[in-house]
Structures are given as structure tokens and as C-alpha cells.
Amino acid sequence: MKQSTLGTCIRALRMQNNMTQARLAELLGVSDRDVSGWENGLSYPDIALFPKLAGILKTDRDGLLREYMQSVLARNAQEKMRTENYSFAGRRILVADDMEINRRIAAEILKQTGAVTEFAENGQICLEKIKNAPPGRYDLILMDITMPVMDGLEAARKIRQLQDPEKAAIPIIAMTTNNSAEDRDATYAAGMNAFEEKPVMIDQLYETIAGFLHPF
């Protein structure tokens, strides 16, 4: 079923299953306020919850993920007037994230700025791309924290240990749903330069990127 936003989709599916917000929250292990926030478009579920959410609502996980992406892109369109002054044309950003839906969202968000986007499906691939590329190919990394093979923290530590000083100093922005003080401390201890929560606030992400991608 096609809905305009993820929140309206969740609400419609919940009602079809004769389920209260409190019951959905109980089954997911979240608060009633969380579910209310999702349904009113104030926030989004953690992507890790999508398989369980789909099972409870008797729907398709990929369908929910598509609704999530459409919600983010719709918000991007609404925020365009606030973000149109950001231009990263000619800059190349490496996005390290194991989830295709996150990579697609990042591509759409960054496309609005003119940036060139490349992808790595885990920290090991990200590290190899940096090691094997000529110095200066990548201007910045958006690094997910939780990835298979090699997580974002380990990848950041290894990048900072590279012998090439330009590669070792590339700006790295952490992208994660884990937003506790301990998580933030861990990202900075690994050598990352900044921290952005998921789901991203697009204008805030642009502002953070702009702090590192100075004009030529």
C-alpha cells in the first residue's frame, strides 16, 4: 500500500491489525511516545527495528524501508530553501554503510549539493578504497559505526594510522543511531571529526560537511 510518509503507513497498518499504539510499543520494546512520534512524522524508527516492525504489522520490510526513504526525501524537498546555499560541487564524498537503503538516501541527499558520491559496504572496503586511491581523491568520509567485517570505529582508527599524511587526515563524520555520550566519546577517540545522528537532519548534515569542505 502506498502512503505519503512512513508515519501514515505505520498508522494505517497498525489500525488494520486492530492494534493500539501502546500494544505496538510493547511488542517492539519502545515507548508509547516513540510510536506516537513515528506516526506524527516527528521521528523515525531505528532501521534495525524494521524487520521486527514489518513482522508485527504483517507487511514487507522492504516496503517500509521504501516509505522511510520517501519520507526522508520529502523532508529534503521541504528543507530545500534552507539548504540550497550549500554547494559541494567537485568534491568527492565516500559513504561507508552496509545498508543499501542508507546509501541510496545519502546519494539523494548529497546529489542536491553537486557532490560526487562513492560507497563502501563495510569498514574494510572503506579502508581499502582510501589506501588504494591517489591522495586527494576523497574529500570526506561519512562513516556508519555498526557494520560487518570491520566497523566504523576500527576503520577510522586504521585510516588515522596510514603513512600518507593527507589520507590519514581526511575528515570523517560518524553516522549512527547510537547517540549516547559514551558513543560520542568512542567516535572521537577513534579519530573521527564529527558526529551526526540517524535519521539525519539534512540541513544540519550539510552544515557539518561545509565545516570541512572549505572553498577551493
Descriptive report:
With 216 residues, this protein is an alpha/beta fold. It has two domains: 73 residues, lambda repressor-like DNA-binding domains (434 Repressor (Amino-terminal Domain), Orthogonal Bundle); 130 residues, Response regulator (Rossmann fold, 3-Layer(aba) Sandwich), CATH 3.40.50.2300. 51% of the residues lie in helices and 11% in strands. The chain is built from twelve helices and five strands. Strands 2-1-3-4-5 form a five-stranded parallel sheet, sandwiched between helices. Strand 4, helix 11 and strand 5 form a beta-alpha-beta unit. Helix 1 runs antiparallel to helix 5 and helix 5 runs parallel beside helix 7. It is elongated and about 60 Å long. The model has no long low-confidence stretch (mean pLDDT 88).
CATH domain class of the largest domain: Alpha Beta
Q: H/E order of the elements?
A: HHHHHHEHEHEHHEHEH
Structural class: alpha/beta
Percent helix, as a range, is 40-55%
CATH fold-type name of the largest domain: Rossmann fold
Strand content: 5-15%
CATH superfamily of the largest domain: Response regulator
**Oligomer, anyone?**
single chain
Question: In one word, what is the shape?
Answer: elongated
In summary, what is this structure?
The chain has 216 residues and is α/β, with parallel strands linked by helices. It has helices spanning 6-16, 21-28, 32-39, 50-57, 61-78, 80-83, 100-111, 123-132, 152-160, 165-168, 181-189, 202-210, and strands at residues 92-96, 116-120, 140-144, 172-176, 194-197. The termini are far apart.
